[in-house]
Amino acid sequence: MKKQILVIDDSKAIRFLLQTVLGKDHQVITVPDGYSAMYYLRHRSHPDLIIADPQLPDMENWELVEQLSSSGMYGDIPVLVLSGLESKETAVKCLEYGVAKYFLKPFNPVDLLECLDDLMKNGVMGRDLSFLSGSEA
Hints:
With about 140 residues, the protein is α/β, with parallel strands linked by helices. The protein has one domain: Rossmann fold, CATH 3.40.50.2300. It contains 5 helices and 5 strands; from the N terminus they run βαβαβαβαβα. The protein has a 5-stranded parallel beta sheet, with helices on both faces. Helix 3 (about 65-70) links the parallel strand 3 and strand 4 (about 80-85). The longest helix has 13 residues, at about 110-120.
């Protein structure tokens, strides 16, 4: 059975890109905002991984990531952040919220796919706090 990935990003282009790149090997669900993400999580099965933009139109920066990390229901789901924010802020916030991995926008989708495959194959989907950015990958 394919691993399920929930992608939360307000950019239609990024949602389409991730659906295309990840959709061959994973079941990808995409939503445009935090409200839709929380609705999905409450009413559907929990995904194996969440890919989230920390800047969403219906929430404060990092609000969704904070809610996910502090939740008793969703806190065990690994989160990968795709951030358009400043590198230092992203690193600090990801560490604070226990984000499994992060990439800075613009990012290389091939690097992202390799990162996801590595996470899933090696069974280290938990919060290992080893970070990647688009410039380091």
